[in-house]
Structures are given as structure tokens and as C-alpha cells.
Amino acid sequence: MSGQAQRWTLLGARTISLVAFFYAQFKAVSTYKQLRECVEQVAQPVVIELCQNYPVSIEGYIYLIIASVLVLFIASHLLDKQI
């Protein structure tokens, strides 16, 4: 792969990782707010079952945040190395 193509690939990876980071952060905050609202209504047994799924969703978004930050750092490091 030529240097210019590799640079554009790294810039694309960095852009995608930034978008993934902000998406996951938004979704994690939103899901956490839903979890808090769900816990406030915990008196109903049906609601308890719904509340149990939120921590798994939040954990997945946290993993996506970590992965996107790692890709961002790696792509940035490789871009700086090229310059």
C-alpha cells in the first residue's frame, strides 16, 4: 500500500473510532438514565426483568468505548510516525 493510501486509511480509522466513541458514550449515558428510571419503578415484578438487561447493554457500550479509544491511539501514533 502506498504511503498516501495508508495515510487515508489511518485517517478513516481515526474518524470511525471517534464516531464510535461518541456514539457509545451517548448510548451508555442514555441506557444508564433508563436504568435509573427503571430502578425507581422496581415495585412491579415485570419491571424487574426489564431492569436486568440494562447493565449488560452498558457493559457492551463501555467495551466499545475502550476499543474505539485504543484504535484512536494506535491510528494517531501510526500517523505521527509517518510524518
Question: What this model shows, in words?
Answer:
89% of the residues lie in helices and 0% in strands. The protein starts with a helix and ends with a helix. It has helices at residues 3-40, 45-51, 54-82. By secondary structure, the protein is mainly α. It has 3 helices and no strands.
Short description:
With 83 residues, this protein is mainly α.
SSE arrangement:
Elements: H1 3-40, H2 45-51, H3 54-82
Average residue pLDDT: 84
* N-to-C CA distance: 16 Å
Classify the secondary structure makeup into a structural class.
mainly alpha
**Outline type:** rod-shaped
| Rg computed from alpha carbons, rounded to a whole number of angstroms | 19 Å
Give short descriptive properties of this protein.
83 residues; mainly alpha; 3 helices
